[in-house]
Protein 1
Amino acid sequence: MLEDLFRLDNKFIVITGATGLLGRKHAKAIACYGAVPILLDLSQKKIDDFANELNDKYDANAIGFEVDITNEKMVKDNADKLIAKFGRIDGLVNNAANNPQFNDSSKKHHTRLENFSLDIWNQDLAVGLTGAFICCKHYGYQISKNKKGGSIVNISSDLGLIAPDQNLYSQKSLDADLQPVKPVSYSVVKTGIIGLTRYLATYWANKNVRCNAMCPGGVENNLSASFMKKVTAKIPMNRLAKANEYQGTLIWMLSDASSYLNGSIIAIDGGRTTW
Ligand SMILES: NC(=O)c1ccc[n+]([C@@H]2O[C@H](COP(=O)([O-])OP(=O)(O)OC[C@H]3O[C@@H](n4cnc5c(N)ncnc54)[C@H](O)[C@@H]3O)[C@@H](O)[C@H]2O)c1
């Protein structure tokens, strides 16, 4: 029915990085529209607390598991567990990303390409790209065995579509070697996610598995006034996003409202990539 087009009732939807800034918003929207959110992240305590919050508010039967998505055995075991428990998986949101903490006081900034550590590069790719592949391999395969198929949403970024403008991150007081930049791994992961999306959109299309990528712009989250001034000047709407401004698009991408959407790369960036 037309009025139910966006509903997700009785669907089991896996969300990676579910207790992060945007993962929480994705999971709330999924719970609110009637699906069972299956929350994956690295801390069982945080996951359980968040699942309780969703269940209190939405009566959602949310459940969550500590699964490191870079560990294929953990992901496969979890996919098997979900099938034993629920019988099927209907959706997957590949949202997790690495957020490395740096602790260096060297004379060169660690984010700069010429200093960027191979370890961090490997970790970033392991979570953002290989982790998404592993999740598609196991949860996505289960979706492909579902009679009705399902929907995979990969979270890329506006920086999957355009190069970062490193002037945004520069700080007047610093020497050239100490200027921070957006790490190269971010561009590579977010562009790679788009390739994964196109591959999957065709791979299981005959099983009614749709796969699309969402490319969010930056979210307002304790950013300095000078960064805000520079970045908003690059956005036609002249502002960053609020963290809840991706929820509507996510529900559309997961629900029957987007039943003919497949292989699409959807920018939601206040128009930044239009300029
Ligand atoms: N926040 C933004 O401005 C923004 C903009 C564009 C795109 N994005 C993308 O949206 C997604 C979510 O961003 P966010 O801001 O919520 O990030 P976040 O750092 O708040 O959340 C990421 C979550 O992923 C989890 N995670 C990390 N490694 C993991 C692993 N190996 N296994 C399982 N979980 C793991 C973390 O614990 C964390 O909870 C990311 O893919 C990010 O690149 C964010």
Protein 2
Amino acid sequence: MITSLQWRLSLTLTAAILVVAVGAGWLGFRSAYDDTIGLQDDLLMQVGSLLDRLEVALPDEGLVGGYPGADHESRITLQKLDGGEHAQPSQEHVLSLPADLPEGLQTVLAQGEYFRIYVRTLHSGVRIALSQETDVREQIAYRNAWRAILPFLALVPLLLLVIHRLVRSLLAPVNLLSQEIDGRRDDDLHAIATTTLPREIRPFVDAINRLLQRVGDTLAVQRRFVADAAHELRTPLTALSLQAERFEQAELTSDGRQRLARLRSGIDRAKALLHQLLTLARTQAAPPRENTVFAVRELIRQVLENLLPLAQQKDIEIGVDACGDARIRSSELELALVLNNLIDNAIRYTPSGGRIDIAVQEQAGQVRVVIADNGPGIPVAQWQQVFEPFYRLNGNQEPGSGLGLAIVKTIVERLHIGIALAFSDQDQGTGLQISLIIPTATPANPAIPGQL
Ligand SMILES: Nc1ncnc2c1ncn2[C@@H]1O[C@H](COP(=O)(O)OP(=O)(O)OP(=O)(O)O)[C@@H](O)[C@H]1O
Ligand SMILES: [Mg+2]
């Protein structure tokens, strides 16, 4: 079964037009044919009536009509019908006709051919027969009938083409609509504009909009729930952490101390997980924060200040190459979260003694921040998956919740920042290089006066 509405419409309309065209064509053909035959009969009768009025003396051998150049078969023959006996043709064109032919029009078989014959008794009492070959009459009628319906038949393909185009253009808004929805980001649930849509599909789109609204509401409730749950869990976890700290001061056996250390590291991991969970839920649920103008280099410096102890602990060297003073208009707090997660990853997943390079480049209309480490990197097949919540690479020994890059993805999409992964060392396929492409002017992010 054909499921395409466009094809079904086109085929149904085409079939309907062809049925109508064949019916109308046949009727037109028949009526043109009958008219021509009727005209020819009229002609025979009119010639008969003229002869009657003129009262001309008729030759015994008959008369053949026609003019120079006229078709031999199409001529009209006039002959007398002799009373009583079967008339004997004196000439080749005179037919052998029975003398008792009835008055009026008739079709008669004579000398192996059919003739249309008009018999009339003149005032003088002479009976005449006007005859014409039926074959020729029919040929003329066919020709006329075809001529009458030919323009109509020629227009049928044109009509089919117009219908196909029309159906396509009528369904174009539906195609545009599906393209618009396909091109949306996962979290883009805003209502579809219906003002430019045809009235017939508006109820359908309204229903989709209502569904989008419900999905948005459900998502918001779920995110709020996650944020509330993470928030609520923080209090008992902090109490647990305090209790564990107090335990440290108590007298414990070495086995007890080992167990306490494991307990504390477990609590720390749970705290880190709750922190990331809360950050992700808040980032997803919160409305976009206000944009401010700030210098990227300064923001990187602030983020590094917090992360330097961890880097020093692992003896990792961090180089910052920020020529110029690139300033952007964006959400400073959220960009700080992005940089924090990316640099934290770089430090965490680069082995001790490694190196991280951070570069800020200013190009026409955009600022690029590139963070490259010389750790193991991420295999190309997982470049998409690492941005999914809770996804961590196999064999990962570092503690972590797998939420950092999901937070990064949520923020960069919202701030219209591009993100690209690559290897720091292309030949070896090692080291992770992450580039952030921050536009300096977008509709939501107008150009900074006096900048770029
Ligand atoms: N610079 C990097 N080098 C190698 N692997 C990385 C790097 N950054 C991220 N990864 C891999 O991607 C995974 C996902 O990173 P993500 O930041 O989302 O989570 P996480 O670091 O495990 O936990 P979290 O950041 O929430 O504490 C990591 O577990 C790690 O396997
Ligand atoms: Mg991380």
